[in-house]
Every structure is written in structure tokens, then in C-alpha cells.
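wait is this the right file?? whatever heres the structure
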């Protein structure tokens, strides 16, 4: 539920830190990403489709040219939901 998604982000980060494990998950929720710490957000891998070739492309968010702008944005959810991330790939 959107009003509780911050708890999911906290749980994922706490469990991975305490158990020293990696979690692989998929989401279409910009809200979940907005609740991740900067360290976790850096390791998020985003997938998109190249408009010209139709090939799936992916990149770690930390490797995107404008990651610093993304992580500092007060409107992270809006940047993601408006397609900024796909265009940045």
C-alpha cells in the first residue's frame, strides 16, 4: 500500500545490511525508489527500451550521467514517473 511503502524500503535495507545479502526485486513504483537511502539508490538497476532499436538497455542509477541531480531531487517520484529515467538510460 502506498502509505506503507516506506516500511518496505526500510525492511529491505535493514535485512540486507544485517544479513549481508543482496536482494533482487522488481518494481514499477517510483514511491519505493523515493524511500531508498542514497547508498541503496546507487545500486538500483533500471531497465528501459531503446526507442530506435527496441533493444532492452539497463544501467545502475549511480552510473547515469545525472545521478547527482536525481538523488538530490525533491521530486524523485515525478522524475521517474514522467520517463526521465528511461531517457537517461
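ok assuming it is, sequence goes like this
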Amino acid at each position: 500500500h502506498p502509505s506503507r511503502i516506506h516500511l518496505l524500503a526500510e525492511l529491505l535495507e535493514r535485512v540486507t545490511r544485517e544479513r549481508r545479502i543482496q536482494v533482487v526485486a522488481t518494481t514499477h513504483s517510483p514511491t519505493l525508489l523515493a524511500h531508498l537511502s542514497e547508498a541503496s539508490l546507487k545500486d538500483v538497476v533500471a531497465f528501459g527500451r531503446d526507442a530506435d532499436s527496441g533493444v532492452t538497455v539497463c544501467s545502475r542509477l549511480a552510473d547515469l550521467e545525472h545521478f547527482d541531480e536525481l538523488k538530490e531531487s525533491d521530486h524523485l517520484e515525478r522524475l521517474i514517473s514522467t520517463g526521465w529515467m528511461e531517457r537517461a538510460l
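The longest strand covers residues 45-49. so i think its the right one actually
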